[in-house]
Write a structure and sequence with these properties.
The chain is an alpha+beta fold and 548 residues long. 28% of the residues lie in helices and 19% in strands. The strands form 8 sheets. The protein has a 4-stranded antiparallel sheet. The longest helix is centred in the N-terminal third of the chain and has 56 residues.
Amino acid sequence: MPYRGGIALLVVVGVLGVVGALGMGFVSLAQLERRASQQRLDATRAAFLARCGMEDALARVALGQEPTVADATHPSFYMQDAAGAPVLLATGGSRTGYSGSLTPGRGECYTLRIVGGGFDVNGGDPAAPAGQGYNAVLRRMLGTLAEAIDRADGVADGKPVAAADGQRIVDARPPAGWSSLAEIQATAFLGSPAKLEAFRDYLALHAWVDRRVVAPNVHGGMIGKEYHSWSEIKLDHLEAVPGSRAPAFEPRAPVELAWARLRRPALLALLSGLKGLYLDESTCTNALALTAPAPPFDLIGTMRAAEISNTWSDADDCHVAADSILASRRDLDTWQDWNAFCDTLPFSGAAAERQAKRDILKANFNPNADLNKFNPTRTLFRSVDKSDLLAYSTELSLFPVQGRDVESTGKVLSRRGEVLATRTLRASLPGPSVARLSTQKEFVCADLGSLDVPGDETGVRLPGAVPFLSQSQGEGRTWGHMLPALGKLGAGLQSYPEPCVDPGTGLAMVPAGYDGNLQLATVETEDNRWYGVTAPTRRMTLLARFDD
């Protein structure tokens, strides 16, 4: 009989091996389940962090807080230390900033990227040639913007964008306008994601358009010309409307001031090359030319040109203005604040030229016209107004006028800074519905009841009609509302500027389409040489503005 010793041992060893393998499998499975559970927990935490960041972003946008330019170190609304420097986290071998955290110090944070408030790439008329009207202005601004982005490191190295890339946004624009940033990348940037990323924070696809912006109507032939009266200056302006020297209107999409004052390339694009005409009174032959009548042969001044030059030097006027805006910590909540700030800018040139450059900034960026040639007063007088600009960009806005694209990314990190889980949420916030009533026609006339007509700047309907405040009452050339009191004509109000002559009839008074203010209309002055007439007139004294 053959020897069978040791079989039992082999069986026992085999059974123990199977049991051990099963045990190890159960342990591994348990570890996998635990790891999967932790990953699901981390993913859930990341999702909650992203949601928390989105709520934070929505609240900040609703409060009007303006985000910074988003990058790895400075995400929108980044956390700061006591010195104002970004608080950095070690993640993935690098140090990055973050926007907030639910439990500081535990590796849970969220970062925000908020895009909006930039240049309206569909501004002007997309169906018109790129070099026509406001299209040419937008093309110049975007070219300068690209050059400024390229020079952000101080070197014009063509990386990642050059001026031609910005200009191509207008040149390659389809007749219906751009529908997405992806379309701009594919067509204008020839598929380059790096170019789009460089421009992303500066471009807007949809923005509110102000259709009541005064378009300049001066020309280069006025430079160096001597003038004997303001009526002569008015008559030398181009005739946009037959029978009237009043300027026409041009639709433009303003750029938000709170957004622009944080971005040097945007400021350089807005400021570069602004140019306007001003009257140099040093050649005046009558010292009281602006306040007293003078015979026709007296000279009131010579027309000069002032320019916000950009030579890509930190010392030129363009960079001086941009850096002053960036460094300023003063509140710019009203246009009076903006005008007062402009008067502090240290531009180059003689005193009159420096003030003209400051007034160019007021005229270009303030949407309110304050035209010098229509019933001007010392209270509102500027050496350069909107109609005097030879080269312009677009207006600024004191309130948000564009939508926002919000991206919130929640991150869960290990103690070693490894990214354990991320979750990203995206949302598009629509821009506000704007009803801007700042012109005489809109503010005091029946136009309030028909604001939804095609071509008007708002679709908001305000029912009812308001009586025409500046009806022609009283004598002479005063168009003020004279109120009878105690048997006498007492103090009354009128809306500035005065009513315009209807180009159709040449006689009837129609409400002006320009913005203005409410003012007293009962103060007598000397003969009105602003208009080149000798009939008695009344000086309009400022009472209260109704601009935006």
